[in-house]
């Protein structure tokens, strides 16, 4: 059966980037003789700014937030049940998104590397200070969240499994966890000690400022695994990219893996940048992260061999020709950048092979 890829689109620049994703995926399918089915969610999800533009009523915002979260959760659960292994999602309102991440127990993976060091950043999105729900009284927002031993173990296990896949044959001996554990009555520390012993690894649970100080003073070994709480990893991601990757976040995508058993095996790909509502309709949003996500999905989930390398070569060539969007110092539109990349990708296939395609299916 032909692979199916899920597609969820938010407001802001979401529609433009969804078109970029479909164009690149279609091109890679054709050059690889693959047939890929796209299941697009029927709901057009809000961004934070589209919500505020629609209403200033707190109750209405809360209700629309919940509706978006409920719908997207159902979409992910349905796609997982049907055997879909990947969803590409453009940016949506963070409050809706984190409700889904908590319910489906998500972790985010990003490999950040320079010539000497390779850091696997694992972001715990399933629990903690970014999760939970709000209640309102006049002049007060009460936000309640929780930490769970079961979820903590799932996050650690997922980090260790990904590290072994990333560096096959190498023993994962040490993991750093950056959490505000001093606020949790010592409970998180007890859990981590027990989990580390069970998995046979050394886990250093440290305050975020301690992790930052050590990164500055000691640098990183050649292989590092850092599990970050949401409030630390969200802020530090762009800093680590700059320090280690020498790359802008607008060019990056990340993977969110759901650990809940009902959606096991489903990976959500997203750009690191947000909805960029101020750029909507101007045809100048940076498409590089979306192009890279399309290539990763094509290769890992749709059988398009060598899609990542071929796409990176095309991006390097286009960049060397100065064809970039304004945020990268160029003068070209989103469409012009994508046209240039697609043209190069179209000539990378073997003309003697049958032509593949991308088909739309009902979500």
UniProtKB/TrEMBL annotation:
<keyword id="KW-0464">Manganese</keyword>
<dbReference type="InterPro" id="IPR024084">
    <property type="entry name" value="IsoPropMal-DH-like_dom"/>
</dbReference>
<dbReference type="Pfam" id="PF00180">
    <property type="entry name" value="Iso_dh"/>
</dbReference>
<feature type="domain" description="Isopropylmalate dehydrogenase-like">
    <location>
        <begin position="4"/>
        <end position="341"/>
    </location>
</feature>
<keyword id="KW-0520">NAD</keyword>
<keyword id="KW-0479">Metal-binding</keyword>
<dbReference type="InterPro" id="IPR050501">
    <property type="entry name" value="ICDH/IPMDH"/>
</dbReference>
<protein>
    <submittedName>
        <fullName>Isocitrate dehydrogenase</fullName>
    </submittedName>
</protein>
<dbReference type="GO" id="GO:0016491">
    <property type="term" value="F:oxidoreductase activity"/>
</dbReference>
<keyword id="KW-0560">Oxidoreductase</keyword>
<dbReference type="GO" id="GO:0046872">
    <property type="term" value="F:metal ion binding"/>
</dbReference>
């Amino acid at each position: 059966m032909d692979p199916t890829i899920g597609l969820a689109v938010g407001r802001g620049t979401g529609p433009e980037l969804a078109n970029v994703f479909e164009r690149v995926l279609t091109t890679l399918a054709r050059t690889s003789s693959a047939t890929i089915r796209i299941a697009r969610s029927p709901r057009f999800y809000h961004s934070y700014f589209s919500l505020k533009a629609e209403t200033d009523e707190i109750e209405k915002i809360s209700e629309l937030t919940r509706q978006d979260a409920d719908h997207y959760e159902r979409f992910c659960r349905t796609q997982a049940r049907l055997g879909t292994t990947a969803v590409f999602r453009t940016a949506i309102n963070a409050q809706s998104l984190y409700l889904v991440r908590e319910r489906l127990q998500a972790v985010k993976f990003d490999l950040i590397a320079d010539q000497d060091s390779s850091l696997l950043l694992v972001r715990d999105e399933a629990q903690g200070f970014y999760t939970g729900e709000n209640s309102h009284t006049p002049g007060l927002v009460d936000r309640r969240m929780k930490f769970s031993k079961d979820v903590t173990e799932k996050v650690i296990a997922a980090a260790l499994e990904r590290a072994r896949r990333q560096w096959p044959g190498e023993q994962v001996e040490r993991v750093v966890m950056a959490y505000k554990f001093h606020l949790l009555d010592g409970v998180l520390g007890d859990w981590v000690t027990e989990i580390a012993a069970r998995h046979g690894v050394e886990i250093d649970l440290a305050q975020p400022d301690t992790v930052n100080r050590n990164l500055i003073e000691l640098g990183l070994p050649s292989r590092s695994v850092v599990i970050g709480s949401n409030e630390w990893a969200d802020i530090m991601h762009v800093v680590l990219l700059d320090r280690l990757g020498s790359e802008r976040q607008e060019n990056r995508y990340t993977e969110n893996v759901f650990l809940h058993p009902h959606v096991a095996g489903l990976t959500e790909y997203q750009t690191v940048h947000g909805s960029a509502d101020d750029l909507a309709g101007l045809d100048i949003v940076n498409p590089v992260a979306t192009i890279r996500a399309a290539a990763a999905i094509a290769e890992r989930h749709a059988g398009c061999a060598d899609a990542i390398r071929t796409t990176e070569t095309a991006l390097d060539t286009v960049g060397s020709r100065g064809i970039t969007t304004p945020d990268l110092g160029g003068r070209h539109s989103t469409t012009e950048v994508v046209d240039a990349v697609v043209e190069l990708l179209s000539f990378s296939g073997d003309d003697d092979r049958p032509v593949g395609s991308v088909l739309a299916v009902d979500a």
